[in-house]
User: Fold these one by one.
Assistant:
Number 1:
Amino acid sequence: MRIPKFPKVNLGFFPTPLTELKRLSAYLGGPRIFIKRDDQTGLATGGNKTRKLEYLIGEAISLDCDSVVTGGAPQSNHCRQTVAAANVYGLNCCLQLGGHYTETLEGNVLLDNLLGACIHWDPQHRRAEGLQTIANNLAKRGSKPYVIPYGGSNAVGALGYVSAVGEIQKQLKSLGQNISHIIFASSSGGTQAGLTIGKIVYGLDAEIVGIEIDKSSPGEKPLREKILTCANDLARKLKLKRGIEMSNLSFENGYLGGGYGVVGDLESSAIRLLAEKEGILLDPVYTGRAFGAMLDLIKRGRFTKNDTLLFIHTGGTPALFPYSKDLLK
Ligand SMILES: *Cc1c(COP(=O)(O)O)cnc(C)c1O
């Protein structure tokens, strides 16, 4: 299928590696597990937002914007990659971070500072709810800001994970390998929307399984609805004949643990296991939880020994440092 062209810039080193976790699989007694290293995109310590930002920054530049505005939690990997991406193309970057200045100068917030972001601290807004106000203020001062939503999750950003499916398919082909499931941490939904539409575009025969890592707040749309909306916006953008339905989305939502960013046994033992068996570092908020969920789902038989799994490592390792106390408990 021909994909229409959209404005895009280069921000990462692609393709990211795709390797097999042989020692881990042997330890578990199966199934075979592969890992896609999107933690290695290279943009100021990397992560899944790099793929989205290639299209988002591309659009910002095509609209002649001179600054970008986005937001998230203080340890947002999305915010850190956005500042770096803005710097690569000479744009200013304002972040709204949902916390206090005194909270932490470690991990991603440290990197945001080093990268020179202008930071608006706002403890009331962890999910980038006040971005338009910041953008309006910038516009009043003669700037032309481009607003990037929470997690970079709209149809433009999700294009990055449509092309990721093409990249994965090529790598699997050269390995002569099929997979049955793609598993990853799902939070603002753009990654899952992109992968789900990418599966259709590239005819990939694998189930796309998002592990929900963050509960929606009261009154907010549930994640599955956000993903459905984003995926169907994306389908229209790509001029696909049909969109998708809720029944086309797969989720696991039994792994919310103690809430967003709370590290429990599931997360810390998954982080230690992968580190000890394969020398690969997961993160405490997203991939530690998703990987722990995958291991539990193997135990419960949701994934069987005959399946072949692909886990997408979506990044987040800078957050290991501010969570050291929880991880060493
Ligand atoms: C943002 C993020 C995710 C979730 O991706 P979404 O597209 O927001 O669902 C997963 N892992 C890490 C490390 C992230 O930073």
Number 2:
Amino acid sequence: MKTVKDKTESNRGGKGFNALNLPVHRASTIVFDSTQSFLSRKSQLFDGFSYGLYGTPTTKALEEQIVLIEGGKRALLLPSGLAALTHALLAFLKSGDHVLVADCVYGPTRAFCESTLGSLGIGVTFFSAGADSVKALLTPTTRMVLLESPGSFTSEIQEIAAICEQAHRAKALVLMDNTWGFGNARLFEHGVDIVCTALSKYASGHSDVCMGSVTVNAEELYRSLKTFVTGMGSGVSSDDAYLVMRGLSTLEVRMAEHARRGLALTQWLRERHEVKAVMNPAAPGDRYFARFGRYFSSGNGLVSLVLKSRDLAAISAMIDGFRHFRIGASWGGTTSLVALGDLSNVRSVEPHPEGSYIMRLHVGLEPIELLYEDLREGFARLKAFDSRRAARTPKSAA
Ligand SMILES: *Cc1c(COP(=O)(O)O)cnc(C)c1O
């Protein structure tokens, strides 16, 4: 019974058909023209195609696009931002090595360093989130320095160029998580060797795909990494790569609008008496604004704030009633989001000066007035909660 036409024939594409968009190549099997080319397929690992998991024309096209945006030489896709970071760490570190990690890295990155790297016999030392130097912490076994600027939730910025110089003098590589600054930072120009980005955020831009990239500026780093990732059996689907590619086609206009809104919201929040601190390094007046200008060309839609209230029930009342800011992680899409973090347990070097709960807002692309209204009503719920509590509390105990 012959029910399917020869697949390889129809896969070569129809004559006279020229789609504007990138084709999605779904593949496990890739077929070869001869026994010889099949037997030597491993030679295709870095620049050709040998098996669907190791790359298709769709995933290659996205990797090339990532290199254009981040700079560097070669990029490699992984199934999530976290996977990009963990594969890069494991590819370049071995038992007995030492790694320096910024105190403000993404929570799961911190957990991975503490648990998995620790259990492999890789020494981990955290350093100050806003460090301008790591000189005193470099040891003869330090093989890597892990940066993240602006830091997750709290937006500290490390002095990237100075730290790269110190690390290189000690023969250590610098890996930086550039998820926040994707599209607005050229980190290789400041000395960074390996850039990891969660494409799940602004790159894809629609909250519907998880992916990460590792970009490097040297062919030898790429080859080590590609060999390691292949050995781990990690890869991405072309369907997902297509979604990220589609997101990238509007990246610039989306980012400009998110950044404009992020700045406006920062100013607006600074004037609210319920707010103790606002963090957005792209805004003039922010503690890290000068450093931001050295490394980033524009901001985004992320704004963190610490309320004067430290009362979880009151803060929850504010958040739970939001109609437009939805409660959730993984920012970068078109919907506004709110996420609550606890600053008291995410630091090991020094306590965060603001302590307490931190609220991270992601400004989406809804009509902006609706978002301000949502926040105004939220502050009213916060206040109502506080006055109800004051009414219930006897004066002597207050
Ligand atoms: C979201 C995020 C990640 C992880 O990305 P996933 O694709 O969700 O795994 C890593 N680093 C930073 C800074 C992030 O914000």
